[in-house]
Design brief:
By secondary structure, the protein is α/β, with parallel strands linked by helices. It contains 13 helices and 14 strands. A five-stranded parallel beta sheet has the order 5-4-3-10-11, sandwiched between helices. A four-stranded antiparallel beta sheet has the order 6-7-8-9. Helix 6 packs across helix 7, helix 11 packs antiparallel against helix 12 and helix 11 runs parallel beside helix 13.
């Protein structure tokens, strides 16, 4: 599966800062010091609907991570999956009377278009669950051979008791885990399971549903968590720098994925930092496909909204914060974009050297994009009120905003 084209990232003078970021597993900040190649895995979409603002906010956060690392002169090995086979996809295809594979292909293509428009840097490896199945099957077989998996009516489950570190990502109690498992694709009430929250590794073929050859597992399809584990281990290995996604993935997805990988390899931890973006609401409720309260990036683009304004609307909120999308949020972003573009269109202006360092400092401090925007705003106000004599300043600001914030002026 191919990703989307990369926009050019301007090189800036000087050196970026190492990233200090909030780690869900430890509950506090960690300073990441990757080697020459920083490794990041971000969980992708289940393509049964278009990209909404909640998706865009999440991928914007991890785009900033990449840009901070690139500014430190590191390379970035970014991997993202596409869950192109799962119950929600099959249910939507049946509802709309369309082929599930065609639906997944169409929505994945639209996602690529949205990411390109928003100037999100693409992953080096963009892998669908279906194409990962040949690598998933041996991992499930190995977990079974290790005694970490068991069969129930043909389905294969992972035993959470097999990982002594289970629970160290989310730090939830058993009752909370059971509740979230039921809400987020699990089946805690199924009789016969060793633990209610044990997740499925391999679902035996169901009549009328797609299935693949699973070798000794029989025909079926993979569970949600093992999909990401197989892709991450194949392309990044253990101990990569950041496992990323929305805060709704802390449990069960990232908790289970960590346990799968740790049992498979005997190593700990799967990732040096578990980083999670907040949720975006609309009309007082979390924006989600199940609720249908969505603002689609593609719809905004069709209405003529500049993608740079959409991106500025996302950047105006700290990535870990839960916030609400409103017409005013977008209008504020459009106004800011107009002021910024007018300011950098002048032939000269106030020196921008200190501004570049302010943006760097803000982003290195747990991706504090609102502080970075405020720093640019101050330079723009100075430009509007007093101007300056530095002929290179507008270009420096334009390149810094592009390189570090992903906004083309």
């Amino acid at each position: 599966m191919h990703a989307w084209p990369a926009s050019e990232v301007p090189a800036l003078p000087g050196q970026g800062r190492d990233l200090r970021i909030h780690d869900t597993a430890t509950g506090g900040p960690v300073t990441l010091d990757p080697g020459p190649v920083a490794r990041i895995y971000v969980c992708g979409i289940t393509p049964y609907d278009a990209t909404h603002i909640g998706h865009a906010a999440t991928y914007n956060a991890f785009d900033l991570v990449q840009r901070v690392w690139l500014d430190t002169k590191r390379q970035v090995h970014y991997v993202q999956n596409v869950t192109d086979i799962d119950d929600p996809l099959l249910e939507r295809a049946e509802r709309d009377d369309v082929d599930w594979a065609a639906l997944a292909e169409r929505e994945t293509a639209l996602f690529r278009e949205d990411m390109t428009a928003l100037r999100m840097l693409p992953p080096r490896h963009y892998i669908g669950a279906v194409e990962a199945i040949p690598g998933i099957v041996p991992l499930v077989e190995r977990l079974r051979d290790l005694g970490a998996a068991y069969e129930l009516d043909g389905d294969i489950y992972f035993s959470v008791d097999s990982d002594p570190h289970f629970g160290e990502v989310s730090h939830l109690d058993a009752a909370a885990m059971r509740l979230l498992s039921a809400e987020r694709g699990g089946d805690p009430d199924r009789p016969g399971k060793k633990d209610p929250v044990d997740p499925m590794l391999w679902m035996a073929a169901r009549e009328g549903e797609p299935s693949w050859d699973g070798g000794s597992l029989g025909r079926g399809r993979p569970g949600w968590h093992i999909e990401c584990v197989a892709i991450a281990l194949d392309h990044l290995g253990m101990g990569f720098d950041v496992q990323g996604g929305g805060s709704d993935l802390v449990f069960p997805h990232h908790e289970m994925g960590a346990s799968h990988a740790q049992v498979l390899t005997g190593e700990f931890p799967m990732a040096k930092a578990y980083v999670h973006a907040g949720m975006v609401a609309l009309h007082g409720e979390k924006m989600s496909k199940s609720k249908g309260n969505l603002v689609f990036v593609s719809a905004l683009r069709r209405e003529g909204v500049d993608p740079a304004a959409i991106r500025l609307a996302l950047l105006a909120h700290h990535y870990r914060a839960d916030w609400e999308w409103t017409d005013q949020v977008l209008e504020d972003a459009r106004t800011r974009l107009a002021h910024w573009r007018a300011a950098v269109s002048r032939p000269d202006g106030p020196s921008a050297d200190a501004l570049v360092e302010e943006i760097r400092d803000a982003l290195a401090n747990d991706l504090d994009a609102p502080a970075a925007l405020a720093a640019v705003d101050r330079w723009v106000v100075l430009q509007e009120s007093k101007g300056g004599t530095d002929a290179g300043a507008p270009g420096v600001v334009s390149r810094a905003v592009d390189a570090l914030l992903g906004v083309a002026l």
